[in-house]
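Input for the complex:
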Amino acid sequence: MRIALFATCIVDAMYPGTARATVAILERLGHEVIFPSGQACCGQMHVNSGYFKEALPVVANHVKAFEAEEYDVAVAPSGSCVASVKHQHPMVARRCGDSGLEARAAGVGDKTYELSQLLVDVLGVTDAAAQLGSYFPHRITYHPSCHGMRLLRLGDRQLDLLRSVAGIELAELPEAEQCCGFGGTFSMKNADVSSAMLEDKTANICGTGASLCTGGDASCLMHIGGGLSRQGSGVTTMHFAEILASTLEHPAAVTGDVRLTTGRTAR
Amino acid sequence: MSGTFLGMPSLPVFGIGNLHEHEPFPKAARRELGNTQLRANLGHATRTIRDKRLAVVSELPDWEELRDAGRAIKESVMARLPELLEQFEANFTARGGTIHWARDAGEANAIVADLIREQGADEVVKVKSMATQEIGLNEYLEEQGIAAFETDLAELIVQLDHDKPSHILVPAIHKNRSQVRDIFLREMEGVDPELTNEPARLAAAARAHLRRKFLSAKVAVSGANFALADSGTLAVVESEGNGRMCLTLPETLITVMGVEKLLPAWEDLEVFMQLLPRSSTGERMNPYTSLWTGVTPDDGPQNVHLVLLDNGRSAALADEMGRSALHCIRCSACMNVCPVYERTGGHAYGSTYPGPIGAILSPLLTGITAEENNSLPYASSLCGACYDACPVKINIPDILVHLRGEDVDSKRGKKKLPSQMDLGMKAASWALSSGKHLGLVEKALPLGRLAAGPDKKITKLPGIAAGWTQSRDIPAPPAQSFRQWWDKEHQAPAAPADATGPEAPGAGAPGTIETSNGSTGPKENP
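Predicted:
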């Protein structure tokens, strides 16, 4: 399969390791990955802040960049960005009165998948250890990000993939489905409420005894990780793509308080 | 009103009354967040209701179909509202009731006060009602020398404490049992000084207090959960039975109801009487459902009135994106699952309608530019829990975003100086609307690494971003963006990224791989 990678702006600029891990996983499965160079951002920050006029060129650029290439499916390691591409782009075009762009955006959106969706639903990955050689000997906990869970209905796809990684130990996160409080510009406009939500999230994470919290959205992980770092907890965050890409020969490095598990496969 | 009335109302009349924030939400929220007792009470109460709701909702195999039906019925009501209102009026009037049309809170209050005075009464008993809270009826009646007694236990607690409800279903959710006992001891006439904080004892004290009122009141004022157009029937759904007392004992019954509460026909109750109790109190069925159709000779109130209230509902209906907010059946499921509401409580929202539904309904009723209501649509992280919980599937997150757009657009060209947010969004729009632009911006990433210093954290940001660093760090940016890595990688003959070369992701000597934390730069080719 020819797969177009939508890295997303935050991963591209701040967490390139997540995009490289995504490329590694897909290539390991024997697929060709391309990177449409015109891409930048999905525009959800603008949309969710009410700046539709400013969002329009961002949306139009995404549609143009992904129409410019030939590929079977597009993938992004981010639930919220995929939800934006699929649900918000046609709405922004409609709101700005551009019906042509609306139809084109819907076309791009139809071909776009979140990483766990693509792996499970399209590429048939059910056992990361067997099919990807995934090995990650750490005690981790998992936060399901809101947009992946509620807008894309990812269900347990990410969790099931993580469960099938060799050596991993998964600690269940209490109140996992509660939002971490990021919410884009919400974290700045309503910083106090956002911080109160984050406090509860990080307390739950630290209570699991895990050395890191994983998830499927770089922005939520940046928020959670920023709180864990400020509190001096020693717990870090890592995108699930990097855990899937980690192998016995080339394990992903974990900073912070590393607590190695026995290395038995958690099933 | 000015000019000659020609039978058509001037364009949408916005709502007035208790629908307004009087300070921006973030400021109100900060104050409420400091109230640790409130947060503990709310956290406990909302968790309990949440779990109960989930349990009774998950036992229905056709819950999702019921939600779809509820939404479809409400959509049809909104599409046919004028016609259904006239049908309801004809039926209600034919059965001996009297209809009054109120354009806003002021008109509604005056109508109710006149009706009470006509009966020579100076006090009324009240059934818990959101509409009368919205129009500030109790305060208005007090000014007119008429005492209004709330008979719902929680509303009574709030009223005795001279406080405001903080939740539409559980108005006293922010108070615990000991606080309730203290209020009763302080405010209730003839209360047992030995009163404990046991719920049964507290309920008995309230019952004794209320019984005196039920038996003496000549006039009752209620709201309504539903109005059935095909028969002219009104319905009140409740748990305690105090409503039933008010609806049956006094001679005169005055109901105040928002026009959006209509349902086309009796059989529609089948859907809503499943949706409402389960979503609201987490019960399969509520204890008391009272339905009345006009006047029944020698049985119950003989003087029956209904005030149909607009108060901004026409304005909300005119908003294509926002109109589904009028589908709300006031069950409160959205606030019970909202992580923002759970931490701030209802008072932070200023309006009668708190939580996620309040964040859209209040600005829709008042207009986005009213007082501080333009801060309400931002009172959400857009997590979407409210949309999942809503029994009539109101897409609250989408409407929040829509109203944010209305707010931003309403300010365009009106400010002397653009805000930091305006400037930031404009700059970001340029940077993020082309791969080339973003690539240029990424060239400045090393500056961020400098700012982070040796511990690879940025701990203080200026301006609007300062809110972020009050409780969170930002990691130092990586030495190389993904785009830069990709370009470098694909200039040379393409090597598969999974080769065991040192430039492969997840490859190299342990400890030198770049993780999410952006801690180390990629290794150079040796």
